[in-house]
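Researcher: I'm comparing several assemblies side by side, and this is the next one on my list. It has 832 residues spread over two chains. Same procedure as the others: predict the full complex and return the structure.
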Amino acid sequence: MMRRWLLPLLLTVLSSPFALAQRDAGYDAVVVPQNRIDARDLGYPPIDVIPNGDSAITSLTVAPNGNLYGATSGKHSYLFVLNPRHGYVQPLGVVPEATAVANAVVVASNGDVYIGTAPAGHLLKYVPQDEDRQSIRIKEPCAVKDLGMAVKGESIAALAIDREAQIVYGLTAPNAHFFEYNLVTGAFADAGVVAHSRPEGEKFETQKVFSSALILDQAGNVYASGEDAFFYTFDKARRALVKLPIQVPAIPGREPWTCAESFVRDAAGFIYGGTSDGYLFRFDPAKLTVQNLGKPLLAPEITALALAPDGKIYGVGGSDQDMARLFSYDPVTAAYEILGFVDVNRRPYYSWQAYVVRAMASGLDGTIYMGESERVSRLYLLYPVMSNAR
Amino acid sequence: MTFAALKSSSEPILIRRLLFMILTVGLSLSNLFAAGTVTVDYRLFPGLAEMDGNWAALSVASDGRAYAGLACHGCNGHLVMYDPATDRVTDIGNLTHLAGEANLHVGPQSKIHAKFGEGQDGRIYFGTHAGWWYDYARVGTREGYPGAHWMAYDPKTGKVEDFGIGSRFEGMNTGAYDPKFNRIYGLTHPRGHFVYYDVATGRSVDKGRMNNFESICRTLGIDDQGNVYGNIGAGQIYKYDPRTDEITELPLHIPVRQKGISLGRDYNKSETHWRTLVWDVATRRFYGVDESASLLFSFDPHAGPYGEVKSLGQLAVEAMKDSREIPYATLALALGRDRKLYYAVPEKEFDYGGSAGVGVSHLLTYNIQTGIKEDLGEMRLPDGRRVIGLNSADTGADGSIYFVGAIEVRAESGRPVESAGTIGGVPYRLALVIYHPQRSTR
């Protein structure tokens, strides 16, 4: 009698919810390894946190002292800092008259932080002052100095800095002006535009196409992609904007709608870029050559790139309508590794996943920071596996 | 330990231990459900035996007709209608065909995953949804799901109008229609965006992310002013005001069971929300249940600056109250014309083919006026077959309570079994289950 009941009872036990105590292992296989990733709320929830709707991280940069600075976009833009020794995000207040700060936070050699705003188009300066002793400021204005408007009527769409020369460079939108701001003299200069007209397209396509980021080579020349995917450089010696005879990789014919979405420079001076069509490329500024390294993902964009200490390039791809995935590229082996969805599966986040990532930065200790860029967003910390052979 | 290993000399001890453990943890539930039986009526969906699920998609229109969305994983979902006046079920159409995607060979329109809404023009508004997600490996790919369609069925013409895709690659996980502003609202899957389609202007609007993919709030509530409410985080209520087009996260929470119970479903959920809620015109408030422990609450959106939530206890079968293993809340909640809430709860964790085992659904009531809760008992068909689980509900014009869910299928000699699959080894198929409060015997 007992035996007749035993198997059904055993099956009942095995099929009960007790058998489902963890996330399905199949899903673990499609996300970033969980011992290599963590997340941070943007402040101290539930009160002292950058509000949902204002929290899309669209700028990240690492200061000379290792602090991470970032800015958000939304109904309002917020500035924040993360001191790696403390490990949490400290909101620094609302950036005045800004709803977006896109790839437009840079830090000078003395630690001063420069912020390029949209839509107002002002360059702002934030001077860190004993931040560890400051209380978190939510909804209060960030204490910044307004350095003025870079180009009248234009938003700031990207910034880069030459710390040695003490010059901030920028791109504006919608008309793709390249400008410089001299930190010593406080003067702006408009060097011209990298895109003169918008490409042929449908009625709803109203924007000029040019790069979402700027990058400097080791000599201090600045690069952007402009109209028809051509590279432009701001020649440091000549103080002039020059169109180069090389283009960002694209399927032949798609150049008018192609731009560089992200850049990073390695220790050897090569510049890596991610395109709006999802190609990774390597640009040699000394030889003015571009190598298409292919597409790591089945996704239309590479939205952010960062360099690991072992020389690997880490990137995130996926459009605003997609689900972002992380990959790495090893320049030594020329191999990609697809690391999966950007997901942190631990309390209190459980299976929280970033669907859009539009900013990355490399910490001095090798941590790679990733900024989620959605209505509800968090900062992600990636601890890359280092190649021992380097 | 294998079954063979149990056949050792220590078998009697092991058997006793096993039985004791099972009884202790409460997994052998059948003897704990002491309530009686409630006999319910039902109607099958002819020719649609392969339809394998229904979630929320059941609404009764002002003319008394009941509309349901039948889901089919890996195949096309169907929109069906039941007319009680003629006692006839009509298959209005295959959703992939209605969306004009029959020849694209892309992810099918497999579901309607939310309630329908009736417009002032008499049309029935809804959005479509996908079936399989393949761990999101196909999102945005050539063979992947193209995106949910906004649609309207016109009972006068019998035609479905397709308004097109709102969010590319995403399904309409949750939805609600507001006749006041003539909008279909939704929460997308997998990215949890709050979206709407403005019927008058033809605009599709995306207000951004609200939830994580495994925690998308399953019901949007709309009050009599056209404000839309949902849940984020640990039961926090947010409000969308169509006048300002703004989402406000209110300092207001529904009662939820604290996270940390490592059942599979809880561990996988980043957030905890209401599972479903209904609007009571008389008291101008919502009644709903939380998803994790079926905690009943009322939410008056007009009280005070943000509204007021009142906890009304747990709406559960007596044996499952305060139990760790209480099944995940269903979407089968309706407010009857007798001022009672009707809530169908499964005996075991229920999700059609993904259920934890086969059991019998119970029908619970909560009297809004007296606060009395009652378990009407196991829901069984007139021939004694089990109503295994239900996941949508609405109230008919005559006070009948309609549900859609899984009923047991028994083999008949000489005829093939028509089923959608099995639950705990028992064949099941979808049916419209009808409870007549005034006529039913227990």
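Model: For your comparison table: The domain at 37-382 of chain A is CATH 2.130.10.10 (Methylamine Dehydrogenase; Chain H).
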